[in-house]
Every structure is written in C-alpha cells, then in structure tokens.
Amino acid sequence: MPPTKESLDRLKIDRSAAPAGAPLGPRIAYIVAVIAVIGAISWWFQRPKPAAVRTAAAREVSSAGGTRTLLNASGYVTARRLATVSSKVTGRVLNVLIEEGMKVEEGQILAHLDATNTEASLKLAEAQLDSARRGLGETQAQLNLANSNLTRSRSLAASGNVSPAELEQAQAEAATYAARLARQQSDVSVAERQVAIWKQQVDDAIIRAPFSGVVVAKSAQPGEMISPVSAGGGFTRTGICTIVDMASLEVEVDVNESYINRVSAGQPVSVTLDSYPDSRIGAKVIAIVPTADRQKATVRVRVGFDQLDPRILPDMGLKVAFQSNEAPTAASRAIVVPQAAVRRADGRDVVWVVRDGRVERRAVTVQGTLAQETTLAAGVNAGEKVVVEGPVELAEGARVNELP
Question: How far apart are CA 377 and CA 367, in angstroms?
C-alpha cells in the first residue's frame, strides 16, 4: 500500500523547535587547550638552556711502589749569594776585564777606574812625608848637639866655670829641640796616614770580585761613569757586573697556606726542571719562612739540592714534589683526571661529574699533581666524565651540553 501524504509529512524535521544557541562547554575546552599550547610554546623558547661544558673521562692508572707524594708545587731556582759589584768611589771606567759566563775567583780584578787625580795626590802626600822625615832627621841632630852642650855645661857649672845663666840657656835649647822633635814625629805620623788614605783611594779604583762565582751580567763599558749611588741621571752606572755563586743555588717555592701543613723541615723533595722534564733531582726542605704573603695567601719554602747539577741555572722554572717521610708503599691503583677538573669549593677539592646530561658535585681526595694531571685517591670512578671547562656558576643537578 503506497504511503499517504500524511505519513510523508510526519517524516519532515520540525526546525521551529531548534535551540536558540550552542552549548558553552566545548568552547571553554577549546580556549583552555589553546592557552595551554601557547604556554607550552612560550616555556619551550624561554626555558634555561643547558650550560656548554667540555668533559674528559677519568682513567685508572697503576702507581708503582715508592715514596708517597704529599704535595706538588711550582718554583724557581734562586741564588743565596748574588751581588751586583760596584765601586766605592765615583769614577770613569778605564777597562772591564770580564764577560758574561766567565768564572771568577775571590779577589780577582774585574775592572779599573781612572785614578789619575788620586795618583797625583798620592805622590804629593809621599813627597810631604819624605820632607817631614828629612826635617825629623835634622832636628834629631840638633837635639843631640844640644844634649851634648847641656852635659858639658853641667860639668863646667859643677866646677864653677859656667854661670847659671849659661846652664839655663843650654837646658832651654835642649828642651826646645826635644819638643820640636816630638812635633815633627807627629807630623811624620800624620803624613804617613795621609799617604795610606791616598793609597786606599788608588786601590779603590781597582774593582775586585767579592767572592768566587760566575758573571751573569755585564753592566758597564769603558768610558762610562760609575758610582756606588744613583747620581748623575741615566748616564752613570751603579755596577760593573753581577756575580752568582753557583754553589749557593737553591729552590724557592710559594706553597698555598692551605697546604703548608704538609711541609716540614728536612722533608725529602723531588725536583723536576721545566727544561729537563725527564730528569728528577733529589732535594730536601731547608726551611719554611715563618711569614705568609697576605696578597697571594702563600708561604715561602726554601728547598736545597742534595747535589748540584751543571744544568741548574738561576731563575729556572721547576716543579717540586714534597715526599712523605714514611716507608715506601706497595704498588696501587689510582684515578687520574686533568688538573683543570679539580676545583675548590667550601674549603674542599671537588669535581663536577656529568651523568645523564646533568652535573653532580663530588668531593675528592687529591694525592698529587704532575704534568697537568691530578691523581685522586677517592671520589671518582674510572670512566666517569668530569667537567674540565665550563661556567663557574654550575649548580647541583644543572643540565649541561657536552661540547665535542
């Protein structure tokens, strides 16, 4: 039976009953989602960037049995006897008899100064001395004659052949010549001392080595003026040369005051010259200077060589390893990291270890440092990556980006 028109009208949608507006729930959810996406994007671009660091892997090494190193430091070779030789008087240099590198003995002549005026004054003083001595001889002869006349007058006076006035005159004459002789003897003494003064000044024009050593610097040339004091501006030298006693060479080390408790007098030391890194020289601590440098926070330590080596020269740079006084230990294994990886924080030695892209601070025990590598007794395991270059303000757990 075909559908009727009435049944078909029932199938039409009645739009007159449609709601006035859509629900608010979906719109709010959509807006919240958009805000969350915008916030996530903003956080992504403004989030803290990982710090760029360079790392190195800690490695395990086997240390041979021997004396344990307590502290490593750097220092310089110094000379206890070093002098810039000058003159006692101001004068012009006639000649210089030394060159750099020359060995000299104590008292050896190094240079001569112009002593022409001083030698002339010496000759004048010697002539005055000779004249005084001749006058002394003449007065002595006159005194002898006066004493003979006085003796004769006394004999004649006893027999009444000489008047008292004549006797008194003979006595006065003898006393006069005696006084004149005494004065002239004093004049001769003064003249002798004057001659000695001029001789000393002539000798002062000869510059001699104060001790045996090696000439390391030549400071004056013939024709220049030299003076024991800074006078005459830049045209006057204050020294002829510089001499170093090579037998007085020792090591001067500035030790951080935090580690000075590891150093003691007489402690054995191993010295390695920067110029000869493969050679070790035996030494020992001479003394710890009992004062600290406020600016550098260091204490100066004097170290003496057990045996001098011709390769050791003044002002050479070197590395020193302060050894333990304990008996040698058996072979052991230790961890080695670059020296730059070890830092000071809160009074302790620490390193930053990188794990899963984040840094972790570790306290370590330092055994020693040599050739830009630090040996650790504890705190880091072999194979762990430590930060050797990075920002100073690293924080525990901070994300880092390892540079290639």
Answer: 6
